[in-house]
Amino acid sequence: MSSGQLWKGANGIDLPTSLSKPREVLPFATSLTELQQNKVVNAFKGQAYDMAAEYVWKRAIIKLKETIATLGMTFIGEMLNRSDIDEFTTVDSALTDYTTIQLAEQLGVVSKTAAFKLRQANELITHHFSKDAEEELDFAEAFNIVKTGVKYILGEQEISIALEFSEFRNRLLTESLVLQDTQVEQVVNSPVFYLRTVVTVLVTAIKNEISAKLEYALTNLNVLLPAIWEKLGENDKYNIGTTYRDVTAAGNATAISGVKSALLKVGGFDYVPENLRSITFIKAAKQLLDVHFEFNNFYNEPAAIRKLANLGNVIPPAALIECMQAYLAVFLGNRYGVSSEAYTIAEHELAKISADRWLYYFQKGINKDEVVLNKFYKRNLDYFADFLVANALNKFEDLPRKNKLLYDGILEKNFAKIQKASNDLLSIIK
Predict the structure, then answer these.
(1) What sign does the dihedral 51-52-53-59 (CA atoms) show?
(2) Angle, nearest 10°, between helix axes 320-332 and 234-250?
(3) What is the DSSP string of 355-382?
(4) Chain-centre distance for alpha carbon 317
(5) pLDDT digit string (tens) for 230-286?
(6) In angstroms, rounded to a whole number, what is the distance separating the alpha carbons of residues 403 and 407?
(7) What span, in angstroms and rounded, lies between the C-alpha atoms of 6 and 72?
(8) Percentage of the chain lying above the pLDDT 90 cut
(9) Distance, C-alpha 164 to centroid of its chain
(10) What is the DSSP letter of 210?
(11) CA dihedral of residues 403, 406, 412, 415 (deg, nearest 10)
């Protein structure tokens, strides 16, 4: 195992490039019975391409969800920072298809290439099964979805999740760790997702556990936080600040002392929120994102975005990144376009955000915003650049180098430059 990488995602099975017919591909889908394979082949023969694609896609996603669920639903809730998920929650109700693919990539279940192609397949099938679809799936599109599902999911005998990180989670609450520990060194040097999960596990325990588990969580927060603080995103830092507020409100003297000590070590008191408004905004922003990545998103987005927009004119600092992410996701849309009504609201709300907050986003937010970095299509370059110019947001200079390359590419409407810059930033996140 190399330092800085807990495990690597699977690249799928080898499919001969010469395969051009469903009956040639389906035998590789070892997760499907012969009867199920024949159903798909017959659907293609009958030109029921949508039925064939949907059947294979649902089987693939179910398998991927069941694989992730082997880590335990409580752990999944911690990874997603969702307190509503526990061991009694079903994986299907907890994970959307998009979130499933995202988690699979972050956990190393599938490779970056696999995740990219699975996201494309998901976007394609989501669009064609929505009310906004003007055409039905053709043979080529359906066949590509089937081949993607077989290659990366259904053709694998056993999609494995390395359990080492799950075991490390248990160590966080049962041992006093030191930075010199080999596994600690690996986690400290891991991608942001794992660091975020470590923070979530610790703060969840600090707020909910008692006795020994609480003591271990506080001790390990104080050990790990100085080593990972600079790598954490703003949301993760606010998560710790919110924890300090919560334990203070609960009057938990032990937790107050431990979290205060950790925040003092990193100068983190700027991230202690003033009130509960931020939590409400964050919840509404996450709900909007969920709607955006689900079926009939163009139809359902207006109600979800109005709910967020109606919360107030000023976004709390602790919720700024989540809200901008959600608004930008709707504003930029997907490769098929935007929800016109929701887009208008998103544009209006984004225009209300002050220039200094936009500067903050381009300085410290966009480089860690996986959703927005995956949203740049040729079709939306012009109006995003025009929006920045129209709102006098086109003069930012004091940006990190890679952020500046992306920012300049947007203003120049240079798709190749944007692709390179966004891919470079995404490679740092993952």
Answers:
(1) positive
(2) 140
(3) HHHHHHIIIIIGGG-HHHHT---GGGHH
(4) 21
(5) 999 888 898 899 899 899 888 899 999 999 999 989 988 778 876 667 887 898 999
(6) 6
(7) 19
(8) 59
(9) 21
(10) -
(11) 180
Tokens of 69: 């669920």
d(CA 39, CA 108): 31
> If we measure between CA atoms, which residue out of 313, 243, 314, 318 comes closest to residue 283?
318
DSSP state, residue 294 = S
**Side chain identity at residue 169, one-letter code:** R
Alpha carbon distance 44, 137 (integer Å): 11
| Spatial distance between the Cα atoms of 135 and 147, rounded to a whole number of angstroms | 21
Give the per-residue pLDDT at 276.
60
Buried b (16+ CB within 10 A) or exposed e, 288-315: bbbbbbeeebbebbbebbeebbebeeeb
CA 218/CA 48 separation, integer angstroms: 57
| Diameter over CA atoms, the chain | 69
This prediction's pTM:
0.67
Residue 296 has pLDDT above 70, yes or no: yes
| pLDDT, tens digit (0-9, with 9 covering 90-100), for 329-343 | 999 999 889 999 999
Tokens representing 333 are: 């849309």
| Angle, CA of 174, 103 and 87, to the nearest 5° | 50
Terminal alpha carbon distance of the chain: 17
Q: Is 108 left (phi over 0), alpha (psi -120 to 50) or beta?
A: left
The residue written with tokens 């990545």 in the block is 293
Q: Which long-range contacts (CB under 8 A, 24 or more apart) does 260-267 make?
A: 261/222, 262/218, 262/221, 262/222, 262/225, 265/222, 265/225, 265/226, 266/225, 266/226, 266/229
Tokens of 23: 């009956």
